[in-house]
Design brief:
The protein is an alpha/beta fold and 367 residues long. It contains twelve helices and eight strands. α3 links the parallel β1 and β2.
Length: 367
Amino acid sequence: MLKFLSVFFIFFAAITQVNAEKKADTTLTQTCECPSQKHTHKKPHKKKHHHHKKKKSLLGWQPHTPRVVVTIKPIHSLVAGVMEGIGEPELLIQDNSSPHVHAIKPSEADTLEKAEVIVWVGAIYETGLQYRLKDLEDSKTIIELQHAKDVILYPVREGGFWGSSSCCNSCESGPEAEENSPCNCHPHTEGHHHEPLSKDGHIWLAPNNAKAIVTQVAEELAALDPQHAPDYLANSKKVISSLNDLAREITYVVNPVKTKPYMMVHDFSQYFDRYFGTNGVGTIIDISHAEPTPKYLRTVQEKLNSGSAKCLLVEPQFNLKVTQMLIDDTGVATQQVDYLGGDLTAGPDCYFEIMRRFANSLVNCLG
């Protein structure tokens, strides 16, 4: 009996010790896990917050050459110069339609969706794109050149022979009648927006603005793609040097005719005129792009007949019957100017060819 009790007490003691060890292990495990669980809970929260940042921030974490889309050919050319040897920007508007009123195609919408960086002049020029780009601004880096440092903006030219059509009356219903400027407007249609029309969007036609564009784009791309930053900045210096040479060349070319007055279908030459001192004096249509009134056409015809304008520049983007009628009735000298380079091959040289063609066409028309 005593032997049996001894065995029983030994077995009971062993069981008690095992249970005590298990309890100690459990307590230790719980003590260790609690801080770990709290720490693990905080980390995913921080990561989730980080990933809600714009895509342009993510490019800094994963350096690579961004996919760049540029809206119009002359600006695309300048960007291509900055990216030469690094990557090739894509051109959005490939046909010869006016970017003022261009209706975006499904293929173009797809190109914008796939872009990481979008370069455009702004709502003052590619007016039809402003709302679509607004929808993309949280997921893309959008470079709006009208706000670029050192880009000079001029108000649209108006009054006198800078276009006058019946559409202007449609803007006089609002307060202050569009700041008492009836020709700084266009017909009220869906998506109508007044503000962009206060400024002239043909900013690239002045070499000083072209240099500012190159500098802005190079700085933006260098920040997004730091591994190629020295290359972007070196390319920008080369392009700016070429722009300086171009400005001297054109100044010499247009000097014999720069005081002679000329007209155009719509006003695209203000930046060129202000930089080189040439003398644009009027247009057939105003900023609205609406057909001119018969009364205004008669005044234009008289101006051309009197020699007050020696030349009429026509653009492939505007094929108006009234233009040909004025040419036939007055016998005025004409030249075509394509300031968008519709028939030129896109690339770094395109901008320079556009500007040289403009200068030579003006000289041929006025000479």
